[in-house]
Design brief:
- The chain has helices at 2-83, 89-106, 112-137, 148-171.
- With 172 residues, the protein is mainly alpha-helical.
- Helix 1 runs antiparallel to helix 2 (89-106) and helix 3 (112-137) packs antiparallel against helix 4.
- It has four helices and no strands.
């Protein structure tokens, strides 16, 4: 009988010990799982942030290209004005205006000041477009185009300054 009690005690203590060890292993496993989930979440957030930053950089690079194209269009408008090829100018001005609208829409991270610069440039191109359309539609004449070179020059200067800002966004 003593042997039976001794065996029962060993079995019970051993059973309890195994149960405690099992509980400890389960808790450690649970902690490891939670830590792994937290690390996975942090990695996912970091990947999302990196993708977002890359997307903004690509949009900034596209804006640099678009802005450079607008500057080239403005130079072409200036040459066309000097050559008297007025009928081509509205199409070039419209292309420049569309590009600036695209830049404005694709760079929401621009400061309010730079958004205003873009909006002013778009407005100036609208003025040029309307001026040229009025001139071309007018059979009699009387539309003064003498302001056109100054508007284009001023617009080019502000866009060059804007281009520097956008290039700095690319370098960030």
């Amino acid at each position: 009988m003593i042997e039976a009690l001794k065996r029962a005690f060993e079995t019970t203590v051993l059973g309890n010990l195994i149960g405690v060890v099992g509980l400890i292993v389960s808790i450690i496993g649970f902690i490891f799982t939670i830590v792994s989930l937290i690390r996975g979440k942090r990695a996912a957030i970091a990947a999302f942030d990196a993708a977002k930053q890359t997307r903004l950089q690509i949009l900034s690079i596209d804006a640099v290209v678009e802005c450079t194209q607008v500057l080239n269009l403005l130079e072409e408008v200036r040459r066309l004005y000097r050559a008297g090829a007025y009928d081509i100018i509205p199409d070039r001005v419209l292309a420049g205006k569309r590009s600036l609208i695209t830049i404005k829409a694709s760079l929401p991270q621009l400061s309010d000041q730079h958004q205003i610069v873009l909006q002013n440039a778009i407005s100036q191109l609208v003025i040029c477009e309307e001026l040229m359309e009025s001139f071309l539609d007018s059979k009699v004449g009387g539309i003064d185009l003498s302001k056109m070179p100054r508007i284009i020059s001023s617009l080019s200067d502000s866009l060059v300054e804007f281009l520097v800002v956008v290039k700095s966004l690319v370098e960030e």
